[in-house]
Design brief:
Blueprint lengths: L2 E4 L6 H12 L2 E4 H11 L2 H12 L5 H12 L8 E4 L5 H13 L6 E6 L2 H9 L1 E4 L5 E3 L18 E2 L6 H15 L1 H8 L3 E5 L4 H15 L19
Parallel strand pairs: 1-3, 1-4, 2-3, 4-8
Antiparallel strand pairs: 5-6, 5-7
Helix pairs in contact: 1-9, 2-3, 2-4, 4-5, 6-7
Length: about 230
């Protein structure tokens, strides 16, 4: 089973990716993390991508797709992958479909977390991240027990430099003008699942599992997640 999680920043797709990867034994493949890991390890693709990354340029689509396919070919005991952050447009989606087909693979379902823009803005403006492992907290919706301290590793929380009102608005503009086209792309191919992402973490996770079970015609439904809340998030 190979799944794509689609949603604007602040929609919670990082959190849901973490929960679904545990519940369904899927390998998480966040494109940014794959890129940084490949560069850190000095893999052949990472070495090619490093100059682009160091200059702050966009890494070519084919390189990112290649890293995803490397991950797909090294699943370990996972049953598939769950993609977050790629594709971002229909050109990348077409490329990914071709590359998957070459491996005899396919994208089985695309989950779109629908969240109103004003709620996305509020979530991102109130977002704090822990210094140790990037666990995400929110002063309005997901507060730690001790203010300013991560529950999971005890490290200090900080407000990301790109979570200013201007930069948040810019990122949301990109999503709603460009990435949103993927809703039509995957909808036309019968792979899209729309989920209301405005609810709490557990509600959204249960809705995703229920709709996946229906979409993929899984007898017995989806297995329950090991946890109803996760510190990871987007």
């Amino acid at each position: 089973m190979n799944i794509i999680l689609l949603g604007a920043q602040g929609s919670g797709k990082g959190t849901q990716a973490d929960m679904l990867s545990q519940a369904l034994r899927l390998k998480p493949c966040a494109s940014g993390e794959l890129l940084r890991e490949a560069i850190a390890k000095g893999t052949p693709l990472g070495q090619i991508a490093k100059p682009y990354y160091d200059r702050g340029d966009l890494v070519p689509d084919d390189l990112v797709a290649g890293m995803i396919l490397e991950s797909l070919s090294n699943l370990g005991d996972a049953k598939g992958i769950i993609l977050d952050g790629f594709p971002r447009n229909s050109v990348q989606a077409e490329l990914l479909d071709r590359r998957f087909a070459e491996m005899g693979q396919r994208i089985d379902a695309v989950i779109y977390l629908e969240v109103p823009r004003d709620m996305l803005f509020d979530r991102l403006a109130g977002r704090y991240v822990c210094q140790a492992h990037g666990h995400v907290w929110n002063i309005k919706t997901h507060q730690p027990r001790i203010p300013g301290i991560c529950d999971y590793d005890g490290s200090a929380l900080f407000h990301r430099s790109d979570d200013t009102p201007e930069k948040i608005a810019h990122r949301l503009d990109i999503f709603f003008h460009e990435t949103i086209q993927l809703v039509d792309y995957y909808g036309a191919r019968g792979k899209l699942i729309r989920v209301d992402g405005a609810g709490d973490i557990g509600e959204v996770n249960r809705a995703i599992r229920a709709q996946l079970a229906l979409k993929l015609n899984l007898s017995g439904g989806m297995p329950l997640s090991a946890q109803e809340e996760s510190p990871a998030g987007d």
